[in-house]
Amino acid sequence: MNEKCEIVRDLLPMxxxxxxxxxxxxxxxxxxxxCPECTDYYNNLKEDIPEFNHNExxxxxxxxxxxxxxxxxxxxxxxxxxxxxxxxxGIILGIFGDAIFQEGNPLPLVKSIIKLESTDADYVQFxxxxxxxxxxxxxxxxxxxxxxxxxxxxIYKEQMGNSYFFIKDGEEISVSTRQFTRKYFTWEVPADxxxxx
Length: 197
Ligand SMILES: [Zn+2]
Description:
This protein has helices at about 5-15, 20-35, 35-50, 55-95, 100, 105-120, 140-150, and strands at about 125, 130-135, 155-160, 165-170, 170-180, 185-190.
């Protein structure tokens, strides 16, 4: 190894980091072209310094940042979905208490209550199977249920507890009511009784 080789090898780390002067670069390039040993040395050194390839380094850093951003966004989205879920549940519970979950999925019931409050309907159906309606506690429930059933030709017989009994063609059925919250009650009609005969 001659003196030139030594100088070049001393300069190579700086050269790789692009910190050498234009004159030094020319000197190093010229030497590398004529000296296979130093070219080998240079190639090895280049591989040992991962920062060397600036074009590769930048995207990999970006990829990492993008990934972190994506993960953060996913965590935030997940958190806000949970927040919305708990807020909604909290609001529903706050307004209606645990009673709302006694009738199964509370959403149809909440929708029915909104409809009940925003229209002058006496009742709103919130379940198809079994057939269930919701009404305000302020209504005369006996009167309303009688009218409802008589439209379907059921004749009122008697009331026992929370149930109203009706007869038609020797058949007897009952419509049962249940206090839902202080403001509302639900009532269930036997499915086939709602069919016109
Ligand atoms: Zn050399």
